[in-house]
Write the structure tokens for this entry.
Amino acid sequence: MQLREPSVCTVDAAAGSLAGASGRYVKRLADLAGLYADTDAFERALGRHGDTPVYEVQDLRPSVEAGDLIFGVTRMLPGRIGAEYFLTRGHIHARANRPEIYYGESGAGVMLLESPAGEVRALPIRPREVVYVPPYWIHRSVNVGAGELVMSFTYPADSGQDYGIIERSGGMRARVVADGDGWRLEDNPGWRPRSQAVIDALFA
């Protein structure tokens, strides 16, 4: 077995970047169709700002082997569609028993989590705060601040992502919406519970 070389990557919290990253992708507003409750507000925003970046991810993937780690930085712009804040697509890990760690670099965010059975948690993520996403939890990041939200993250290299689990249930069970100077959770009336067979398959 050949050992990999240790390495150092620098996180630039102001720029929301990772020096030495090997991968990068950007999600623009047009890529996030179907995620927001206020479809009219989304269509209006799409007509004006469809090419606007909502979030960007830079990461380093030394390998995809079990036992290795992927790490990177997410940078999210501030904004709202109707009452809802800008958000990521969200996912559960394709190997659902894999966890993830997020560390707040700058800005103010919420980590919205949902269990396969539909339990909801919403954890604030601010600078120097660590959010632990346990195995089997669906998770999505939301920028509830006036400025950019920057987070670093790490997760097992063989985790994979399943984005479709949210779409198949009509979205996450709760939405993060503006409430005066803060935010609150609002039920998603279009949410559909997962069948016991689907839940059992995740834990198999």
